[in-house]
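Anyone opening a protein record will find just a pair of labelled lines. A complete record is shown below as an example.
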Amino acid sequence: MAGRKAEGNDEQAAVRHRGRQGEHTGAGADGDRRPGPPDDGDGFPHPEGGRYSAHHEQVFRALAEAESAHGGEPVHLEEVARNARLSPEETRAMLHDLVTVHRLATELQGIDSPDLGPRFGIRARL
């Protein structure tokens, strides 16, 4: 009986620690810097009907890293795609959602001369 109780406590501890920050389990636990997003189904619901998926998170992190590398300045789509390890088309779709649905990023157009395309940045939080 004592063995069953200890086994149950181990399971409860594992459940408590699953998903905590700093806990590395599954893909990427071996030190891989940017694993692909897990297959998490539909993602988190958004009040306006969109979903925040693992791909959204992957692109958001890539955007934050790219922007940080440029001293906080907005960056081009190609750099975000390269950091996210996704195609420019996939990245553009995720950035569109991050700008319009989730409102976590901003898109700036026409700020280069000559115009080199839109730049994206993390939306300032108040």
Observations:
- The longest strand covers residues 105-108.
- The two ends are 55 Å apart (CA to CA).
- The chain has a mean pLDDT of 75.
- Residues 2-17 form the longest helix (16 residues).
